[in-house]
Specification:
The structure holds two protein chains of two kinds.
Chain A (H helix, E strand, L loop, with lengths): L2 E5 L4 H16 L3 E6 L1 H8 L4 E4 L13 H31 L3 E5 L3 H10 L2 E6 L13 H17 L16 E4 L3 H4 L8 E3 L23 E6 L5 H15 L6 E6 L12 E4 L4 H4 L5 E4 L3 H9 L4 E3 L6 H11 L2 E3 L7 H13 L1 H17 L1 H17 L7 H7 L2
Parallel strand pairs in A: 1-2, 1-4, 2-3, 4-5, 5-6, 6-7, 8-9, 8-11, 9-10, 11-12, 12-13
Chain B lengths: L9 H15 L3 H4 L16 H15 L5 H6 L3 H6 L2 H12 L2
Helix pairs in contact in B: 1-3, 1-6
The chains are: A alpha/beta, B mainly alpha.
């Protein structure tokens, strides 16, 4: 039996796939502890989870901005202050729990610092694709700005010199919840495992009006995450205009607050939340902002996508979906209703999108999901306990250059 | 931005603005708004794919030695956020003698 300490961020999209892996590990008799907010984590992890509490603190960064300004804000306004704020509590959790292996979210840098400080084996976990493909590698000054922030955190943590490698990438293991059918062929760091989506079972929704679904029509899910009022008004207006003339052909389920779409057409159902995994098998296509979890859940059900990316890793995921042939990318802020309608009709009517989505589904299945991630973590813990040297830092550093 | 000294002629600025308009294209309401002070990242949120497309269009129009991707690669994050149509036109003018 081994002990695993998880360090992530108080964001559901980050925690959910890691929680799926943790569930497999505890099911196999291992112990898993989390360092994070009790109030945030408890509803996601359930009553039995072991949590070393870190009180929530709001960081202003990463919310409203788009483009490069969002990258700057994400790091300077969120990732860095969050790492500073959580460092001591994460260190205490590691001291108390004595993990064999730490699981560290690529954006939870405090976990990497503590692992180095204590000489612990650790795995990086990529619940988003934001850092995974190092999207700024073609922008040397941007990349060096980011590495400079990591240098600063390293020094502030009282660690000597400079980090021996890019702290977003553990030299021991990197687990990413995507698949090569989606990412395409890239040169990954050593010890990278693309395990496909790790999908958590979620409670059934007794109130969902299943009777509303008309088997004679096709079904489209529209889910673009939480939007600011401006964005929501604008996007939903264009989207409902796009869907307006398609009532004889399809029914659309839109995940949105009801006030965002007043008086929807009879073929449009607006729900604040839906039983996503129960609904997926009934769908024909998904319109998404390109969050990795939604994209992968759709593809894991062989569903083609229309992706309208807003920020963060979403443009990366959108480009990957388009490149895989499993969907169409549209501009979130600018696509006119006609453009959105054409995209929806394309993924519904052209069987090549469905076929490409099915191919991605097959590759996800082969990748193994949460159980495959758990296999790798178990093996890493065993190696650590046997004190077998696992790596050569220099080689790893070259591997990600 | 201070690091760029070449000021492009109005004609080049207008040409670059037109290429940017073609790129973000279809969407009517945006067309009129693109001018010298429009920021590619900060206002239009152009993604790297779109920036590469703009680079291709500029190279076709002004010649191969106009390398927008290479130019942007030299900029800091703040310079990328602030990069305007006029800045790109200034770079084009410096590289092409236009």
């Amino acid at each position: 039996m081994s002990r695993f300490l998880v360090v992530s961020l108080p964001l559901a999209g980050h925690v959910n796939p890691i929680a799926a892996v943790a569930r497999v590990l505890t099911g196999r008799g291992h112990e898993v502890a989390w360092a994070g907010s009790e109030r945030f984590l408890r509803p996601l992890l359930g009553a039995g989870a072991l949590i070393h509490p870190i009180p929530l603190r709001a960081h202003r960064g990463g919310q409203g901005e788009l483009g490069m300004a969002a990258a700057k804000s994400r790091w300077e306004g969120y990732v860095v202050p969050h790492a500073r704020y959580t460092l001591r509590a994460v260190d205490r959790a590691a001291a108390d729990f004595e993990p064999d292996v730490m699981l560290v979210d690529q954006h939870a840098v405090a976990g990497a610092l503590v692992a180095h400080k204590r000489g612990l084996t650790w795995a990086s976990v990529a619940p988003t694709t934001m850092e995974l493909t190092r999207p700024y590698r073609a922008l040397p000054k941007v990349e060096s700005w980011l590495l400079g922030l990591l240098d600063g955190l390293w020094a502030d943590a009282g660690l000597p010199g400079r980090p021996p490698h890019d702290l977003r990438f553990s030299p021991h293991l990197l687990i990413a919840f995507t698949g090569s059918a989606l990412t395409g062929e890239l040169s990954w760091p050593q010890h990278t495992a693309l395990v496909g989506p790790a999908i958590e079972p979620r409670p059934a929704d007794a109130e969902f009006p299943w009777d509303w679904l008309d088997p004679a029509r096709k079904h489209l899910l529209v889910t673009v995450g939480t939007l600011s009022m401006d964005q929501a008004e604008n996007f939903y207006h264009r989207m409902t205009s796009a869907l307006e003339p398609l009532g004889s052909k399809l029914q659309a389920i839109v995940i949105a607050p009801e006030y965002a779409i007043p008086d929807p057409s009879p073929h449009v159902l607006v729900r604040q939340r839906v039983p996503m995994l129960d609904l997926m098998p009934r769908l024909d296509a998904v319109v998404s902002h390109g969050g990795l979890n939604t994209v992968c859940e759709a593809l894991a059900h062989g569903l083609p996508l229309v992706v309208a990316p807003i920020k963060g890793d979403q443009p990366i995921n959108a480009a990957q979906v388009a490149a895989a042939g499993a969907g169409v990318r549209v501009r979130f802020a600018r696509a006119r209703p006609e453009t959105l309608r054409d995209a929806v009709l394309a993924v519904l009517d052209d069987p090549s999108y469905r076929a490409a989505a099915e191919a991605v589904r097959a590759s996800f299945r082969a990748a193994g999901g949460a159980p495959a991630a758990a296999d790798l973590l178990e093996a890493l813990a065993l190696r650590t306990r046997a004190q077998v040297p696992a790596l050569n830092l220099e080689v790893v550093h070259e591997g990600i250059a | 931005m201070s690091s760029r000294t070449t000021v492009a002629s109005d004609e080049v600025v207008a040409q670059v603005a037109a290429l940017v308009r073609n790129l973000v294209g279809e969407e009517g309401t945006w067309r009129g708004e693109i001018g010298p002070h429009t920021r590619l990242d900060g206002d239009l949120f152009l993604e790297s794919v779109e920036l590469a497309e703009l680079g291709d269009a500029l190279a076709r129009h002004y010649g191969e030695h106009v390398d927008l991707t290479g130019y942007v690669a030299q900029l800091s994050i703040d310079e990328i956020i602030a990069l305007t149509v006029a800045d790109v036109a200034g770079y084009v003018a410096a590289r092409s003698g236009a």
